[in-house]
Specification:
CATH topology of the largest domain: Nuclear Transport Factor 2, Chain: A
Distance between the termini: 26 Å
Order of helices and strands: HEHEHHEEHEEHHH
Number of domains: 2
CATH architecture of the largest domain: Roll
Structural class: alpha+beta
Strand order of the largest sheet: 1-2-4-3
Radius of gyration: 17 Å
Oligomer: single chain
Helix content: 40-55%
């Protein structure tokens, strides 16, 4: 099973069960920027206890690894759990939606796009992918979240994204960083002609 085939299975199940969700992380970066290799699918979802049984049944144990205990614990604690497809090595990280202003607002900004020709799915907005990548970099220091790419992937050089971020978050939003100086640097970089989206994700 290929990555986007597995994503379709997850999307179909979540939508059948009425679970609000959005795709983020590397798969979202691939959708908005340059394709890259990844074996991880990151999904934020508003899963409730009432969804647990049917969700678990949707991933049969002869094909997937999923822990009922971890699913129910993640729902209770607003944490996360994994779904693994051993045959392909693909891992799905399901992060429970938090009761925060940011999580509520990014669900309002989601984009409905075609990750493949055969289906549509809900994706986090590009600006929200950047914010979370910067948060992960700040927490863990992994350079993969700040990788630069020399190709200009955006016709406006990122300026449109820069403007949307400014309108969305305003001058005092820290974009996941504590320092206003750091935030300003991010926005200045986004506004430079020739700066690709992937240089910040």
């Amino acid at each position: 099973m290929e990555l986007f085939e597995l994503l379709q299975k997850v999307v179909d199940l979540f939508e059948h069960l009425g679970i609000p969700y959005l795709v983020t992380g590397s798969v979202a970066a691939m959708a908005f920027g340059e394709p890259r290799l990844t074996n991880d699918i990151d999904i934020v979802a508003a899963i409730e206890e009432k969804h647990a049984k049917d969700l678990i049944m949707g991933f049969p144990t002869d094909e997937f690894y999923i822990s009922e205990e971890m699913v129910r614990k993640a729902i209770r604690c607003r944490g996360q759990f994994n779904i693994i497809h051993p045959a392909s090595g693909i891992k799905i990280d399901v992060i429970i939606k938090q009761d925060t202003a940011f999580d509520h607002s990014r669900f309002e900004r989601l984009h409905r796009i075609y990750p493949a020709e055969s289906y549509q799915a809900n994706f986090a907005a590009p600006e929200d992918v950047i914010i979370k990548k910067m948060e992960y970099y700040k927490a863990g220091g992994s350079e993969k979240h700040l990788r630069r790419n020399s190709k200009d992937q955006w016709g406006d050089g990122g300026l449109g994204l820069h403007n949307r971020m400014g309108k969305t978050f305003g001058p005092d939003r820290d974009l996941g960083c504590r320092s206003r100086k750091t935030r300003s640097k991010i926005l200045r970089t986004l506004g430079k002609v020739g700066t690709p989206f992937s240089s910040l994700i």
